[in-house]
From TrEMBL:
The lineage of its organism: Bacteria, Pseudomonadati, Pseudomonadota, Betaproteobacteria, Neisseriales. It holds the Pfam family MoaC. This is Cyclic pyranopterin monophosphate synthase. Catalyzes the conversion of (8S)-3',8-cyclo-7,8-dihydroguanosine 5'-triphosphate to cyclic pyranopterin monophosphate (cPMP). Homohexamer; trimer of dimers. HAMAP family: MoaC_B (MF_01224_B). Substrate binds at L77, C78, H79, M115, E116. NCBIfam families: moaC, PRK09364.1. GO terms for biological process: Mo-molybdopterin cofactor biosynthetic process. Belongs to the MoaC family. Keywords: Lyase, Molybdenum cofactor biosynthesis. It comes from Snodgrassella alvi.
Amino acid sequence: MNSDELTHFNNRGEAHMVDVGAKPHSKRIAIATGIISVNETAFNKIRNGDSKKGDVLGIARIAAIQASKQTSNLIPLCHPIALTRVNVDFSLDDEKRSITICVQTENTGQTGVEMEALTAASVGLLTIYDMLKAVDRSMIISNICLQHKEGGQSGTWHRQP
């Protein structure tokens, strides 16, 4: 099969769940990132930890972890997988008033963890939006993307700068 072929469609063009049963187990890692840009008030609430709803980044971290575990319930053709690790980090950029989320997901299995990392990054950023929308409805979520993946038949891939 060419890497250009879409594996979620059968020879009649119908969507189906890919059979991964014959694939060997391997260690798989994926890293996804995304950014949310906020106004000064929202940024200061995150930096100072004084949001009325609580610890914005702490809650967003838990939301991202939960989302990674629910990916197969949200994305119709994703396989339910047993994650062995989910790590969520945030970095703040004072100059741009933005927060970057970085999610690393891992498992040892027959299919990758890219969708879990991307889902976690998305939900983590959406949680930040939800918690701060009272002070900034103009927030922009952007640049959600896969940065790195390794394991499986396709090996290692890394986003070029």
